[in-house]
Amino acid sequence: MQSKDLLQLAEQFGSPLYVYDAEKIQSQYNRLSKAFSKVNKLRINYAVKALSNIAILQLLKEMGSGLDTVSIQEVLLGLHAGYEPEKIFYTPNGVSLEEIEEVTAMGVQINIDNLSILEQFGTKYPSVPVCIRINPHVMAGGNANISVGHIDSKFGISVHQLPHLVRIVENTKMNIVGIHMHTGSDILDIEVFLYAAEILFDAAKNFKNLEFLDFGSGFKVPYKKDDIETDIEELGKKLSKRFNAFCVEYGKELTLIFEPGKFLVSEAGFFLAKVNVVKQTTSTVFAGIDSGFNHLIRPMFYGSQHHIENISHPKGKERFYSVVGYICETDTFANNRRISEIKEGDILCFRNAGAYCFSMASNYNSRYKPAEVLWINGEGLLIRTRETFEDLLKNQIPLPVTIATV
């Protein structure tokens, strides 16, 4: 997408505004598919939590994607978007047995990540196909909050508990059809990922009726100019060769599964916000925008960096700004960032705003959530309307008049 297109969308739909480039999502999907083209059975399950708009799910469905879901609500969204149950994987953490049973009844593939629920589920439903999430105790991820494969993680069944896991499966006669791992987001070192894959291969040898191995995702995308990213092509070459060799060892052709979220949608996303005020203090120039961490929490939550451009005056003289929001709390998107000279009314564009941005938005300070637009075939398609005051009131129940006036 070009800046002129984004400016036109900001004028048409207002700000703040999320915009997603359909062509970029499609190219990322095709890039991952091509990297693993030497694997006969490859399946890509989009991680719904990254960006759960129904239109995005439908776009990926048309490309052949399945879904990776982590809640019953995401399962329902997938079904509503037209996915067949068998194309949906459900990998919850810390949910009740009752929720897992409810999802099971929908015909979705269940992925269990703790021994207690595994034993309870296996005892009641020994014939239901189940995948098991293994914790390989391999640290990966650019931030402690998104590293999920280390020894202190709440996710997965420790690989060191494998004897106990096998005993539960043997005692309940469970139908184990898959083994899964996810080390965390922002994988930088392919060798670390391949090391974790070997742990998964070793664990898989304990189960004789597997149909697939799920390697999760967490591929790093570039957040700034010259930033490093996961070399998908190199990973595809090395892991494909090892996976195909393992299938020969196992005596059966298995399906290789990935569950990318950020990799597919992050770079496709743009967040547009208008500058309300330029405020000079004794030490800093603040650019205050018509948004806050209620709309894009990642910089405050993870310390993540989003490249920010002044698309209203992209060729202006560069100055240093701290870009801040309107939330009544420390609300900083960028400190001392070099940006083309900013004037009140300018539109700033935050890049890499497709993953874990709108999906983590809130109504903090009773602010409305923004609209979402899909840029497809050269035009902007509104895929979520901007919230209104009526949306804030929805589901709230005022006190009865007799109590309120006491």
Any overview of this molecule?
The chain is α/β, with parallel strands linked by helices and 406 residues long. The chain has two domains: 228 residues, Alpha-Beta Barrel (TIM Barrel), CATH 3.20.20.10; 125 residues, Lyase, Ornithine Decarboxylase, Chain A, domain 1, CATH 2.40.37.10. It is 31% helix and 24% strand. It has 13 helices and 18 strands. Strands 1, 11, 12, 13, 14, 15, 16, 17 and 18 form a nine-stranded mixed sheet that branches. A hairpin with a 7-residue loop joins strand 14 and strand 15. The chain is globular and about 70 Å long. About 2% of the residues have low confidence.
Query: Which regions contain 5 or more consecutive residues with pLDDT less than 50?
Result: 141-150
User: How many E strands?
Assistant: 18
Counting copies of identical and different chains, the oligomeric state is single chain
Tell me the CATH superfamily of the largest domain.
Alanine racemase
Q: Output the CATH topology of the largest domain.
A: TIM Barrel
The chain-level structural class is alpha/beta
Summarize the structure.
By secondary structure, the protein is of the alpha/beta class.
List keywords for this structure.
single chain, alpha/beta, Lyase, Ornithine Decarboxylase, Chain A, domain 1, nine-stranded mixed beta sheet, eight-stranded parallel barrel, 18 strands, 31% helix, 24% strand
